[in-house]
Design brief:
The protein has a domain at about 80-180: Sandwich (Immunoglobulin-like). The protein has one helix and eight strands; from the N terminus they run αββββββββ. It is rod-shaped. The chain is of the alpha+beta class and about 180 residues long.
C-alpha cells in the first residue's frame, strides 16, 4: 500500500513537473513590453473643429421668404363688333324714340365693373344722359350696350359718339356712335 502511494505520488509529481515545464515554455514565448521614447512632432498640430449636431429643438433650415410677384395691371379694350339696331343712316321722324344697341367685345384683360362708364364725347346727346353705366362684362366676353335716344325735332343728319372710360377716368377702346337722318 505504501508502494502504491509512492508510485502515485511520483506519478503526480511527474505530471506537476511537466505542467510547470509547459508554463515556463509558454511564458517565455509571450511578448515583453519595452519602453517607447516620446518624439515631439516637428509640424504644428492641426486644429479640428467639432460642431454640434442639430436637435429637434434647434431649427435645421433657413426660413423661406416668399416675395410676391407683382401682378401686371390689366388692360382695358372695347372692340366694336356691329350695330344690332338702327344701322348708320337710318331715317327717323322728329321726336321719335330710338332704341340703339351695339354689340361690343371686352377684348382687354380687365373685367368691366360698376366703375366703368360710357360717356358722350361728341355730337348731341339726343335726350340721353351724357354718362351711362358700361355694361358689366368679364374680359374676353361680348356685351350689348343700349341707349334710348329721342330724335331731334329739326330735320337733318345727326351723329352722337360715345367712348368707354375706366374707373380712373381714362378713355379706352373703339368709339361707338349712332348716326341718323331726321325727315
Amino acid at each position: 500500500m505504501i508502494g502504491d502511494m509512492k508510485s502515485r505520488f511520483l506519478s503526480d509529481l511527474k505530471s506537476a513537473a511537466v505542467l510547470l515545464a509547459l508554463l515556463f515554455t509558454v511564458g517565455a514565448c509571450a511578448p515583453t513590453s519595452t519602453a517607447t521614447v516620446f518624439v515631439p512632432p516637428t509640424e504644428p498640430a492641426q486644429i479640428i473643429v467639432i460642431t454640434a449636431t442639430p436637435t429637434a429643438s434647434i431649427p435645421t433650415s433657413i426660413p423661406t421668404i416668399i416675395v410676391p410677384t407683382p401682378t401686371p395691371p390689366c388692360t382695358d379694350v372695347l372692340t366694336f363688333v356691329n350695330d344690332i339696331t338702327i344701322p348708320d343712316g337710318t331715317i327717323v321722324t322728329p321726336g321719335q324714340s330710338i332704341d340703339k344697341q351695339w354689340l361690343v367685345a371686352n377684348s382687354g384683360t380687365c373685367n368691366w365693373s360698376s366703375g366703368y362708364r360710357l360717356k358722350l364725347i361728341s355730337g348731341l346727346d339726343m335726350g340721353a344722359a351724357s354718362e351711362q353705366a358700361l355694361y358689366p362684362a368679364r374680359a374676353g366676353t361680348q356685351a350689348v350696350l343700349r341707349i334710348i335716344f329721342t330724335a331731334p325735332s329739326d330735320v337733318g343728319s345727326y351723329r352722337s359718339a360715345w367712348q368707354a372710360f375706366n374707373p380712373d377716368g381714362q378713355p379706352f377702346g373703339d368709339t361707338i356712335y349712332i348716326q341718323i337722318i331726321v325727315q
